[in-house]
Specification:
Helix content is 30%, strand content 24%. The protein is α/β, with parallel strands linked by helices. It folds into 3 domains: 167 residues, 3-Layer(bba) Sandwich (FAD/NAD(P)-binding domain), CATH 3.50.50.60; 111 residues, FAD/NAD(P)-binding domain; 106 residues, FAD/NAD-linked reductase, C-terminal dimerisation domain (Enolase-like, domain 1). The strands form 5 sheets. Strands 1, 2, 3, 4, 5, 6 and 16 form a 7-stranded mixed sheet that branches. It has a 5-stranded antiparallel sheet with strand order 17-18-21-20-19, sandwiched between helices. The chain has a 4-stranded parallel sheet with strand order 10-9-8-14.
């Protein structure tokens, strides 16, 4: 039996940060991982997916600027894209990340962890105890919908799609969310013939104009969009081809089928039943990331279902690591809203970028979500293509910007940008939302000319003086 102050189960980006911040606070920490240190984001999600998208995005950007487009005489080198993607995953070798764990003074334990009692974790038959806390940072898996024949057809999830070493000639994508839209974009641009079946349409939860512009782009790329329809059966034949039958009666034959319909928590084999919780459920937490009803169990990142984004998970991890250390050492806990030991921003100030072409960057509430919360809403829209910096960036720039203003407080509660490279606009919007910067103060934040950031001035002009 080995004793630690804190045992962190899951060494993805989020678990690494929980362990790091707790260790900085003076705790003896163990970090447990059954797969690769660095987790989903490093090897099967954020990094490899963006690497698959970046080369074609750069090529498109060059083709959109006169003087540069004349120099583009070839097409994307698919093998070079895949090789570059492999370099970002270190060819699925986690030794450098394991070295970082050791350099941070954290004990890395490889193996499958099961919670077997109060502050007790068993790893491949060896019992370890935590004097203060256990943090479940196990992430999420791709949801496998109940579609006849789907499981037997050996579908891809994001893992297979982001690690594939060849591009299939055709791909069926089931789903219309961020993962589906990004990977449909990547694979179509890398040479596959992509079909998307999205029962609820594209990018649900975003402003409607974001879905419209992404739909227009996907169609222009040649993606076959089957919106508001869904698969009813999937069959892989003896030749390896997959036939997907849709609810409208049509069929689509492809080399591979990718499922991107949502996520489920990795709690089925975590042992939570040993402490009175239900395997397969999300672990609900308070703002200090303590699992409800416990004073020693924390759940951080995807597994708590607050905001399934790496950057939000790392934000939670910083708060969790510090609050675990503070409680263990009997120090003051700052659990008030926006305090150092809470994840307040997860409630209404979550930034997200969808790296389609065009990009979708958003933070806070959509107009519809704000209205449903009873906020006195004023919506301000502006055509991004009308900003001088946009025309310099691209001869064919097309985009849209929106801010959602709480009229009672005269602050922005949400912002959405759609267009090339709009992710660069997002942090300014996030600061405005998190900081609740008054509209009249924003007038004094002067955007540089000629940049796309000038859209802030145009949005304020359209809003009018308070």
């Amino acid at each position: 039996m080995t004793t630690y102050d804190l045992i962190v189960i899951g060494a993805g980006a989020v678990g690494e940060n929980v362990a790091d911040y707790a260790a900085r606070g003076g705790l003896k920490v163990a970090l447990v991982e059954a797969e690769l240190v660095g987790g989903e984001c490093s090897y099967w999600a954020c990094m490899p997916s963006k690497a698959l998208l970046m080369s074609t995005s750069a090529l498109d950007a060059a083709k959109a600027v006169g003087g540069a487009k004349q120099a583009v005489t070839g097409d994307v080198d698919v093998q070079a894209v895949l090789d570059r993607r492999n370099s970002f995953t270190s060819n699925w070798d986690d030794s450098s990340q394991a070295d970082w764990v050791a350099s941070a003074g954290i004990d890395l334990i490889r193996g499958h962890a099961t919670i077997t009692g109060v502050r007790e974790v068993t790893i491949d038959g060896t019992v370890h105890t935590a004097t203060h806390a256990v943090a479940a940072v196990t992430g999420s898996n791709a949801l496998m919908p109940d579609i006849d024949g789907l499981k037997d057809a050996k579908p891809w999830s994001n893992r297979e799609a982001t690690s594939a070493q060849t591009i299939p000639s055709s791909l069926m994508v089931i789903g219309g969310g961020v993962v589906a839209a990004e990977l449909a974009t990547a694979y179509q641009q890398l040479g596959a013939k992509v079909t998307v079946a999205a029962r609820s349409g594209l990018l649900g939860g975003q402003e409607p104009f974001a879905a419209d512009l992404v739909q227009e782009s996907l169609e222009a790329l040649g993606v076959d969009l089957r919106l508001h329809t869904s698969p009813i059966s999937v069959v892989r034949d003896e030749h390896g081809l997959v036939t997907t039958t849709l609810s409208d009666g049509s069929t689509v034959v492809t080399d591979e089928v990718l499922v991107a319909t949502g996520r489920v928590p990795r709690t089925l084999d975590l042992g939570v039943e040993n402490i009175g919780l239900t395997p397969g459920d999300w672990l609900e937490v308070d703002d200090t990331l303590l699992v409800n009803g416990f004073d020693w169990l924390y759940a951080v990142g995807d597994v708590n279902h607050r905001a399934l984004l790496t950057h939000q998970g790392k934000y939670q991890a910083r708060a969790a690591g510090e609050v675990i250390a503070a409680r263990a050492l009997g120090e003051g806990v700052h659990a008030e809203p926006w305090g150092a030991h809470v994840a307040t921003a997860d409630h209404a100030a979550v930034p997200q970028v969808t790296f389609t072409n065009p990009e979708v960057a958003s933070v806070g509430l959509t107009a519809d979500a704000a209205q449903k919360q009873g906020i006195d809403v004023k919506v301000v829209d502006y055509d991004l293509a009308a900003v001088a910096g946009s025309s310099l960036k691209s001869d064919t720039y097309k985009g849209q910007a929106r801010i959602v203003v709480d009229e009672s407080r005269k602050v922005i509660v949400g912002a959405t940008f759609v267009g090339p490279d709009v992710s660069d606009l997002l942090h300014a919007a996030t600061i405005a939302v998190v900081g609740e910067v008054p509209i009249d103060r924003l007038w004094h934040a002067v955007p540089s000319y000629p940049t796309v950031s000038e859209v802030w001035l145009r949005l304020l002009d359209a809003y009018g003086r308070p």
